[in-house]
Design a protein that fits this description.
about 260 residues; alpha+beta; Fumarylacetoacetate hydrolase, domain 2; 9-stranded mixed beta sheet; 5-stranded mixed beta sheet; 6 helices; 14 strands
Length: about 260
């Protein structure tokens, strides 16, 4: 396989920008995870040169349920860009995605780059300014697409943007009892606060360790957004639906899929 990583990253971006977009699978099936992250790094550089600033990271495949859905065995991370951030309520078209799927999850706004977080939970918590719900959008390809960790990573963790709540909850605020995901007012998943807390801190500790080992790019300027991964499953969206993720009485995010 050619190791022209910039050329491979260009292929990924062209697939993303195609009409309709296309998840790129073929070159990456047998690639090592380290090489896949190198492709992702090149993708970040190309987008930076095009005027697309990176605003944070996403941690994906944190739950065993999603790992089993995608056939992989470890978490992965991708990059967030300003152009892919949308405010709630948002309307999107399935035709703009290659196999649209969503995750309802929590995001945090950090006061520092994740690499500068403490490995102490109490000190790490002090670096979290806000917690808020998001609906993360994904390209998952066709139902028969042969996905692997390397395919996911090279495609920027199949991240296709996110819709965020305009309401921020301070970390010192009263904590909610759960987060819930609704499709057309039908609750499809409820996650207790204990699992949400574990996911946030486990994801941040994991991300810090991974970035320190493989990412030598310049630190991001705060505030830095991190999507912390879903405890619930990855939901494929194959028909029009109204999606709502509720985190507390005053913090929710909504997306209408056409």
């Amino acid at each position: 396989m050619s190791k022209n990583f910039r050329q491979l990253a260009t292929v990924v971006l062209k697939g993303r920008e195609a009409g309709p977009p296309k998840l790129i699978v073929d070159p990456f099936g047998d690639m090592s995870l380290a090489d896949a992250y190198t492709v992702q790094n090149e993708l970040v550089q190309i987008r930076h040169e095009a005027g697309h600033p990176q605003i944070g990271y996403k941690v994906g495949c944190t739950s065993r349920q999603i790992q089993e859905q995608l056939g992989i065995h470890q978490p992965i991370f991708g990059r967030l860009f300003l152009q892919d951030r949308h405010e709630s309520p948002q309307t999107i078209d399935r035709a703009d995605f290659d196999g649209l799927a969503i995750e309802g999850e929590l995001a945090v706004q950090l006061a520092c780059d994740p690499r500068d977080l403490s490995d102490s939970r109490s000190k790490l918590e002090q670096s979290i300014n806000h917690i808020f719900p998001v609906i993360e959008l994904h390209h998952t390809g066709s139902p028969t697409a042969l996905l692997s960790a390397a395919v996911l990573v090279a495609n920027n963790a199949i991240h296709a943007g996110f819709v965020q709540s305009s309401t921020r909850q301070e970390t010192t605020a009263t904590k909610p009892q759960s987060m819930s995901i609704h499709f057309d007012r039908n609750c499809v998943s409820t996650i207790p606060v204990e699992k949400l807390e574990h996911t946030i801190f486990d994801s941040l500790v994991w991300l810090r360790r991974e970035l320190l080992s493989i990412d030598d790019s310049p630190r991001l300027k705060p505030p830095v957004t991190v999507l912390c991964g879903s405890v619930a499953e990855l939901f494929r969206v194959e028909e029009p639906v109204d999606i709502r993720v509720e985190f507390s009485e005053h913090s929710a995010v909504q997306c209408n899929v056409r």
